[in-house]
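Inputs:
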Amino acid sequence: MFKKILIAADGSDHSIRSAKKAIYLAEQNPDAEVTVVYAIDGQTSKEDILHHFDKSVVDEARKRRLQPIEKILKEKGVSYELKILQGEPGPAIVEYANQRDFDIVVVGSRGLNALQEMVLGSVSHKIAKRVKAPVMIVK
Amino acid sequence: MKANSLKEQWFGNVKGDILAGIVVALALIPEAIAFSIIAGVDPMVGLYASFCIAVTIAIVGGRPGMISAATGAMALLMVTLVADHGLQYLFAATILTGVLQILFGVLKLARFMKFIPRAVMIGFVNALAILIFMAQLEQFVDATWVMYVMVAGALAIIYIFPRVTKAVPSPLVPIIVITVIAIMTKSDVRTVGDMGALTSALPTFFIPDVPLNLETLKIIFPYSLALAIVGLLESLLTASIVDDMTDTASDKNMESRGQGIANIVAGLFGGMAGCAMIGQSVINVKSGGRGRLSALVAGTFLMFLILVLGNIVVQIPMAALVGVMIMVSIGTFDWSSIKGLAKTPVTDSIVMVTTTLITVFTHDLSKGVFAGIILSAIFFVAKISKVHVTSRIEGGKKIYAVTGQVFFASVDELVAAFDFNGDVKEVEIDFSQAHVWDDSGVAAIDKIVIKLRDNGVLVRLSGLNAPSSNLIERLAVHRKPGAKLSGH
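Outputs:
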């Protein structure tokens, strides 16, 4: 079974749905360790600082976006860790995943921003292409 | 330790800084020219400003990796100064802006940033975006269909090109493509050259040619003050964004001083006032820029390009620049504030929209910010001015329990809650859930106590916290023998 599971999330409904599937995988293995990564790109950085300004408030606001996922993890008693990365979601998550040996990386097929996706291409596509571990894309 | 960290700030990321600096220089040229046109000055003024500010801030700034140059926010503030008094007064105002910013830095005013409500900051960037967009519309006056097609083409390239490669800043591509098309088809669309002179020469040092008297100061001071405040506002906001993106801290007071020094240098070398740029700084960090070297490379490479390519730059059609500026305004606008409009408190939304509207109508960012701050202060006062007073009878004694903030805005409500005509002989006022803040609060308590006492009631105050009790000790008259209410 999968032991080290990476969930790429951004707090969107899609990411919560894919996290649920990842948590389902984790439940199959009592030793499973889940890492939830949330990558902050320049645009999000800009919005968060503009809306909250103070660093500690910004950090709190970001953790709160992952709260729905954290809640499920707690409910299911899965051991987990939240990790906030700085950078473009695609490359940042790929780099993070490839530096550690995860057994599987789970990502939603769509994120928060459809326009950005149109311009920059989808994060899930980049992850599927460049992460060395098996990747599960949740529709 | 310090010397080491300074070395790190300069040479800790040489390759990334040089590459990112080149990318930023390319992206800066169209903006520097467009912001000059907004301000109503020759493109050279914005280009010299961008060169001087970027290079100076690389040395004296407090936030390595941040890009400062001529900006839209500052350009918008100087329009009437340039129109009414001319270029020399702009240079003088730029120098004074720098002096004020150094003063702000020395007095460590950066810490007061926290008193600017977030809704005002959001209103500020939204207004900035709208004004940059509106400034482009005048380029369409009397324009032919060619202009519209070129602008649409520029925008299409800007948004689609990143799919091909992200190594080249996408705004640069339509500038090149449309310039080539315009030159080849010999189309007679308006170009940068039509907007003012562009000389392929390094900036030179000169003292602005203005009379050094009180009259001059009176003209430039209001502009300089607005420029200094808006410049620091945008710079400190940008610095915090770069802090967040790079996960490092920066010295905001050093940055304030640095912005001041950079503006003085710009003013002495024929440049207009500038500040940090959110968009360019994000581009820099995304392209791998982290250190001071990135801003230095951006400034010098920009100047190098102007010296080498000056005669091509004048042939850039305005349509291409307008396209880039429309992209800049779309990128500047905080779209999440529109999405969040339903969720945020109504008063926050009112403050944000008011800041935006006042700025757009007055064309003055400092007025919008000022109005926004006052409005949110009023809303805040109104929100916390609700005092609750409950009363109960206990053993022949009437006890009033006060909950809330007792200050100038809440005293009417407080006094109105008391019954002065009752037949109880003893009253206790419980302040354990209240805080007395000011003279008016103490005066209101005086009024209540003395009025009750005049009716032969024995009054006792209880539960006052230490600061409130100190204040009453100092100011209250009801403690003094023979206390009477004063006439007012």
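Remarks. The mean pLDDT of chain B is 91. Chain B has two domains: 6-334, 385-475.
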